[in-house]
Amino acid sequence: MSDQLRSWLRTVVPAAWSALVAWLVTAGAPDWLTDPLGDAGPTLVVPIVLAAVYTLLRWAEPRLSAPIARILLGSARPPTYMDSRSTVE
Question: Band of the pLDDT at 85, cuts 50, 70, 90?
């Protein structure tokens, strides 16, 4: 798998998990919590959940088995990036 595809997967897959968690939170959140937010509720919840889930996944990554990491992160191996100071010849 190319590093470009790997980096894309490792961005999109956690975002998809975050979207699922955000949807579950907004669908099951009590009315007293969501009513004051009005229509802005989902708009506010999604980025907060995205940040929390992404941080949790990055923290858990070294502790996960390879198959679980593939499911949650899209790839068990992080991509390698070329040093910006090096030149391509």
Answer: low
